[in-house]
């Protein structure tokens, strides 16, 4: 599907022709770090380990075949999730435009969040233990509407701080006119 392109570089890019094609090709998308794949895989491994240990103990103590079947289902689901984690991380992106920030993600259900700078209340940067181990951080945008909050995971701390400062400055500039 073709998207209309702006003739003048100063003009903001036009919206996609269809709401069903949410990734406008007129936008310069920034990708997140692929190190986020390792963070998500480790989180998955920890969760699967807990489930498998519980199922294995149940199988060892009772000998019931359902515990063995549960182990097989957990392993199959884990294998499927490994494949989707890799693709899901590659689907994340963000773009800074003149008046708003675009955040995209999703495989089966694509999601495009457009957050106007003037609507931002505050910007939060966080990094859990696994993220810090891989030198990553998450930028969380908070607006008045809770459903419109957007986040950008998998950023290097320097890029997260730069994005936080830029969004905060743009938010303050745009809010002055309100």
TrEMBL record:
Signal peptide boundaries: none
Domain of life, per lineage: Bacteria
Transmembrane segments: 41-59, 65-83
Keyword Amino-acid biosynthesis: no
InterPro entries: YdbS-like_PH (IPR005182)
Domain YdbS-like PH residue range list: 91-167
Keywords: Membrane, Transmembrane, Transmembrane helix
Name the UniProt record assigns to this protein: PH domain-containing protein
Gene source species: Micromonospora humidisoli
């Amino acid at each position: 599907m073709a998207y209309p392109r702006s003739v003048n570089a100063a003009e903001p890019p036009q919206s996609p022709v269809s709401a069903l094609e949410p990734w406008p090709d007129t936008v310069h998308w920034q990708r997140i770090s692929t190190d986020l794949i390792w963070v998500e895989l480790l989180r998955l491994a920890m969760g699967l380990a807990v489930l498998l240990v519980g199922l294995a103990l149940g199988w060892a103590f009772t000998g019931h075949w359902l515990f063995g079947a549960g182990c097989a289902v957990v392993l199959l689901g884990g294998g499927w999730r490994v494949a989707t984690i890799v693709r899901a991380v590659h689907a994340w992106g963000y773009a800074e435009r003149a008046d708003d920030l675009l955040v995209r993600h999703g495989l089966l259900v694509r999601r495009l969040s457009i957050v106007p700078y003037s609507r931002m209340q505050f910007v939060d940067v966080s990094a859990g233990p696994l993220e810090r181990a891989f030198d990553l951080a998450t930028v969380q945008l908070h607006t008045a509407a809770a459903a419109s909050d957007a986040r950008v995971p998998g950023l290097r701390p320097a890029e997260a701080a730069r994005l936080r400062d830029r969004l905060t400055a743009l938010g303050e500039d745009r809010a002055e006119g309100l």
